[in-house]
Design brief:
Blueprint (H helix, E strand, L loop, with lengths): L1 E9 L5 H10 L12 E10 L2 E10 L16 E9 L3 H18 L4 E6 L11 H9 L4 E3 L8 H14 L1
Parallel strand pairs: 1-3, 1-4, 4-5, 5-6
Antiparallel strand pairs: 2-3
């Protein structure tokens, strides 16, 4: 069976751990849990009659990327850049993270995950910014770990990008 490593990257409290919990275990908890180091989960997905083992690396959220061990990224086939729509600063940090990840592991598929879509009335990131990124060729998916919106889509889309190149 094929195995692919996918890293979850983003500032602290953007919902990386909650997105994985929703995807892998179909659960959501309001209780905030800080990831210490890295947490690894696994889920088997089917794509075009192929089974693929996704190895999901939930990297602790740091706003200074230098503190994240670059070694955690090695061997990644893709990554999810997770942003909290209610905090503009997480998008700005994501731009820096994207550059650092690319410097470390090269160009691999990634998706900008705009999390917390259930709080859209509190968003600090406007549609024009999202459209600009789409124009630049970025793949963007709005999600809510709380409601489950877009979560399956993100992982199906990154799986497709890894397998089809």
């Amino acid at each position: 069976m094929l195995q692919k490593k996918v890293c979850m990257v983003g500032s602290f409290a953007t919902g990386k751990t909650s997105l994985i919990a929703r995807f892998v275990h179909s659960i959501f908890s309001e209780k905030y849990q800080t990831t210490v180091g890295v947490k690894i989960d696994k889920k088997t997905v089917n794509y075009n009659d192929k089974e693929l083992n996704l190895i999901l690396w939930d990297l602790y959220g740091e706003d200074e990327f230098q503190k994240v061990r670059m070694s955690y990224l090695r061997g990644s086939s893709a990554y999810l850049l997770v942003v909290d729509g209610t905090r503009r600063s997480t998008l700005e940090k994501a731009f820096n993270l994207q550059v650092k990840v690319e410097e470390t592991i090269g160009k691999v598929p990634f998706i900008l995950v705009m999390n917390k879509s259930d709080l859209s009335d509190e968003w600090e990131i406007d549609i024009d910014e999202i459209n600009d990124l789409t124009q630049r060729g970025w793949n963007i998916v709005k999600t809510s770990a709380k409601t489950g919106r877009g979560v399956e889509e993100v992982f199906q889309t990154i799986t497709k990008k890894m397998l089809e190149g």
